[in-house]
Amino acid sequence: MDYLNVSTASATGNPRNKTALKPGRSLMDWIKLTNSSKDLSGNGNRLRDISSEELAQHKNKNDAWLAIRGMVYNVSSYFEFHPGGEEELMRGVGIDATDMFDQVHKWVNYESMLKKCLVGRLKTDSMLPPVKRPQGKPAVGKDLSMPPPPFSSLSASSAGMVTTDWMQNSTTVTIVLYTRQKGLDARRISTSIDGNFFHTRVYSDDWLRCYDYQIRLAEDVHPFCKPTVSLTTGKVELVLHKKQIALHWQKLGDTEEVCQGFKPLGQAPPFFRRSVLTRKSRVNHNVFLCTLTFPTGQNFHVPVGWHVQLKLCLEDGTEVIRSYTPVTSTLSSCETTDCPSISESPTALHFLIKIYANGPFTSALDRLSEGSSSIEVSNPIGNFVGSQLEGKNLIAIAAGTGITPLVRVAIDVLRSNRRVSLLFFNRTQDDIIWKEEFRELELKYPDTFKSWHVLSEPDDEWPGLRGRISKSVLAATILSEDYHDVGSNFACVCGPSDFTLETLRLLDSVGYTQETVHAFSG
Fold first, then answer.
1. CA distance 273 to 394
2. Quick one: which of 46, 188, 385, 480 could link to 107 by a disulfide (CB 3.0–4.6 Å)?
3. What residues does the FAD-binding FR-type domain cover (predicted)?
C-alpha cells in the first residue's frame, strides 16, 4: 500500500491557534477542489525551475507562492481552507518556508495536499552539476590512524554538503561520510553490496531527505557492512572487508558522479536490490502472503508505516513497478523479532498481495514459483512518523487490502501495552484477510485488542455487522462509549479513495483533527 497523510495541517502556522473556516471550506472541500479540473498552480501544470528572486515576487494573497523542501507551490487558492488562518500562511509566502513548516508538522504529506498547486522546483546551489571525480592519479587509501578533516575548516555555506574520505589497513577498507546530520542512527543507513558494486543511502534525522553514494570498487570485498554512526556529528563509517587480505588498494574504485549533498526524498533516484521469492502461501481466495528474502550484503530498515516498491520484468521485457507495505509473517509476531519494525536489517520482508486477473504485476507474480529471483525491492519510501502515536491508543479503520499498512502500526501499539481497536470492512466472509488470526489476537489480548468485521455483501448466516462505512456503524463500534475518546486516540485509515474520504469526513465530524488522523492511500 502506498501512503497519504491528508491532514489539513498548516504549511507554516501553529495548529493550536486555529481559525474558524467558512462553510464550504473544510478538509473535504479542499480535497474535492484538488480532485477537480481547476488549475490551482496557475501555470497549466507545466513545471519549471524557479529562482529565489522569482519566488520573492509572488508574495501577495492573490499571487502567493512558497517553497517547501525544494518545491514551489502556488497557495493562492488555499488561504480560505487554511486552519491556521491567512496571517499564518502569509508568513511563508515568497520565501523558502521549510523551516517554519518543520516547526509544526514536518511529517505531514504536503506533497499530496498541495500536489495540484505545484509550480516547479526551486533553483538552489545544490542543483549545480554533480562534482566529477578528477581523472588524474587515483588517490591511495590513507592509514586508519589519520584524523578526519576538521569541521572548523568548513564554511557556513557548505553546512548541507556531504564530504567523503576513505582509508584502509591490511584487512579492511573504510568509507567515511561526513554528513553533519546530528541525530543519525544506524537505522537511517542502508547499504548494498553486490559483487564489487557498493551503494549506500543515508536518510536525514527526520527521514525526509537522503544522500546517495555508490561506487564500483577497485577490488572484491565480502558482502558484509555494518555502519557506525556518530550521533553528535553525523559521521558515518562504512567498513568493508577485503577478500584478498594484505592487498594494498591503489584506489577505492570508480565513480561516475559524486552527489554533493542531501536532497528531498521525492527527488532521489530509485534504487532496487535483488530478492528471492522464498514463500508464497494462500491467505484467502485471491490474497497471498509473499516472502522476499535478501542475499547477504543487504542492510536496510523499513520504518513503520512506510512502503517499498516491487519491480518485476514481464515476459515481453517491460518492467512493472507497484508499491506495497511490508507486514509480519503472522500476527503472532507481536512476541517475536520477526516483525520488521524492530529489525534494523531484515533478511526478509513479507507482503499481503491481492491477485488481480487483469493486473500486469500481480498476474505475473501469480505465475512465479518459490525460488524465483525475478522481483527487485526498492529502498523504503514514506512519511509516516511513529511519534504521532506516542501515548495514544490506535483506532484502525481498513477496507480490504487496506489492512496491510495498519498491521505493523497495530503491532507496535500492542507492544507498548496500549489499546488497538480495528474496524475492518470487506465484501464477503471469503474476502476477510487473517480472520482467524485476528480472532486469536483478541483472545490473547482481551484488554488491549478489539476487532469488528463489517460486510457489504454478507450471506444469510453472517452474524456480524453489515453495510458500508457510515456514522451508524462507527457509533456501534469505535464511537461507542467504551472506545470514543478522541483525546487519547490516534486514527489510521486505509482503503479505496471513496472509502477513505468518507471515513475522514465522519471522523472530522466527531472531533478528530489533522493531529490525530493519518490516512494511507489504497
1. 33
2. 385
3. 270-387
- What is the distance between the alpha carbons of residues 39 and 494, in angstroms, rounded to a whole number? 28
Residue (of 93, 114, 88, 116) closest to 103 by Cα position: 88
Rounded CA gap, 384 and 403, in Å? 16
Radius of gyration (C-alpha) of the chain in whole angstroms = 25
Question: Parallel, antiparallel, or unpaired: how do β-strands 287-293 and 348-354 relate?
Answer: antiparallel
CA gap 517, 446 in Å, rounded: 25
Question: Chain centroid to CA 507: how far?
Answer: 24
CA distance 320 to 360: 7
- DSSP states along 130-191: PBPPP-SSPPPPEETTSPPPPGGGS-GGGTTB-EEEEEE-SSEEEEEEE---TT--GGGEEE
- Give the pLDDT band of residue 10 (cuts 50, 70, 90): very low
3-state class of 80 per DSSP? helix
For residue range 476-516, what is the model confidence (pLDDT) as tens digits? Answer: 999 887 777 777 899 999 999 889 989 999 998 888 887 88
- Is residue 421 within 8 Å of residue 485, measured between CB atoms? no
pLDDT confidence band for 256 (50 / 70 / 90): low
Count CB atoms within 10 A of the CB of residue 46.
8
Residue type, 37: S
pTM of the predicted structure, to 2 decimals? 0.72
Phi first, then psi, for residue 187 (nearest 5°) are -65, -25
Closest CA to 120 of 66, 192, 191: 66
Q: Minimal CA–CA distance to 510: which of 477, 468, 475?
A: 475
